[in-house]
């Protein structure tokens, strides 16, 4: 039995460790190339916690396991809202910044609805994937321009801030000058991430076969929660530090990255249809819980503890319905 779980556990460990090295090396290299801290924070650092989902979904798509590939994306978004949002609000009521609600949360809901509708009607081909990635790039460019002109922070900034709070050394300027060491660090991290993603997908497939459970269910639950661990850690740390606005922005920003960046990249590299189980139930549910998060956030600009408890109860009910 342990042999069945070992590749899965090893994959999770390598994904997290490799993602840390990859982001740290990339950030140091960008600093030495003169890239501004704002751009580094909103791109390299902000994307750091989404690396496990990205590599896992791409690896699963290439391995012919779309249930794990898209189950990971949709399941991660559901877990981000119900599980991570619920835990964060229970620790400390989540204060919602105006910009994060008005611009980012509404956009997150729209992107979730667009994905659910397109996945139901069309296979996720390269054209759709390119459109999703282009949408993420346009969104990041818009946010960088707004932050430079108005100083108004939003979800994508908070996603970066949450990771920097969890790992303060990541944002500390380096005194060294050379590019070789940061590039080697980034390459080593990339290698670990790719290996971890392969182990995780192989382990998930083996687990599904051993227990007679569909790959989609494994992707929506075990794989999704495992790859969302960085978001869970960073959001909990933000909540413990009484910075609930960062926790909220981290969730919203991660969900945007998951659909536009990870969903788009997966479709570009390994195009294919989203499994019917996901399009019929889980994707609409993702839209529903996204709307619920927006409603909770819009009431008094905060998510209270009782609302966090309701979110957690919702995740428990989801697992009960999904797991055979």
TrEMBL record:
Keywords: Membrane, Transmembrane, Transmembrane helix
InterPro entries associated with the record: K/Na/Ca-exchanger, NaCa_Exmemb, NCX_ion-bd_dom_sf
Residues in Sodium/calcium exchanger membrane region domain copies: 6-144, 183-323
One Pfam family named in its UniProt record: Na_Ca_ex
Its membrane topology: Multi-pass membrane protein
GO cellular component, one term: plasma membrane
Gene Ontology MF: a single term: calcium, potassium:sodium antiporter activity
Segments traversing the membrane: 78-97, 104-121, 127-144, 183-211, 217-240, 252-274, 280-299, 306-323
GO biological process, any: intracellular calcium ion homeostasis
Subcellular location: Membrane
Protein name: Cation:H+ antiporter
């Amino acid at each position: 039995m342990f042999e069945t779980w070992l590749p899965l556990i090893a994959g999770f460990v390598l994904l997290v460790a490799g993602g840390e090295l990859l982001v740290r090396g990339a950030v140091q290299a960008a600093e030495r190339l003169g890239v501004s801290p704002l751009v580094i924070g909103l791109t390299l650092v902000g994307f750091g916690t989404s690396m496990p989902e990205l590599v896992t979904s791409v690896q699963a798509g290439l391995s012919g396991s779309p249930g794990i590939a898209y189950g990971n994306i949709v399941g991660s978004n559901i877990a981000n809202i119900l599980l991570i949002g619920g835990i964060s609000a229970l620790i400390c009521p989540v204060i919602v910044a105006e910009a994060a609600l008005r611009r980012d949360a509404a956009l997150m809901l729209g992107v979730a609805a667009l994905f659910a509708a397109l996945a139901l009607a069309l296979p996720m081909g390269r054209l759709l994937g390119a459109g999703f990635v282009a949408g993420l790039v346009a969104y990041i460019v818009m946010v960088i321009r707004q932050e430079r002109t108005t100083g108004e922070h939003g979800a994508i900034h908070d996603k970066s801030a949450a990771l920097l709070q969890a790992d303060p050394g990541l944002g500390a300027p380096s005194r060294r000058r050379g590019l070789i060491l940061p590039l080697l660090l980034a390459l080593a991290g990339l290698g670990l991430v790719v290996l971890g993603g392969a182990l995780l997908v192989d382990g998930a497939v083996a687990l599904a076969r051993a227990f007679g459970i569909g790959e989609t269910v494994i992707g929506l639950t075990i794989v999704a929660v495992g790859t969302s661990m960085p978001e869970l850690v960073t959001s909990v740390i933000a909540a413990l530090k009484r910075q609930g606005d960062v926790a909220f922005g981290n969730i919203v920003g991660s969900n945007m990255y998951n659909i536009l960046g990870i969903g788009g990249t997966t479709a570009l590299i390994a195009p294919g249809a989203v499994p019917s189980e996901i399009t019929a139930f889980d994707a609409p549910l993702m839209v529903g819980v996204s709307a619920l998060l927006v409603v909770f956030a819009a009431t008094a600009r905060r998510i209270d503890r009782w609302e966090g408890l309701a979110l957690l109860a919702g995740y428990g009910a989801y697992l009960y319905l999904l797991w055979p």
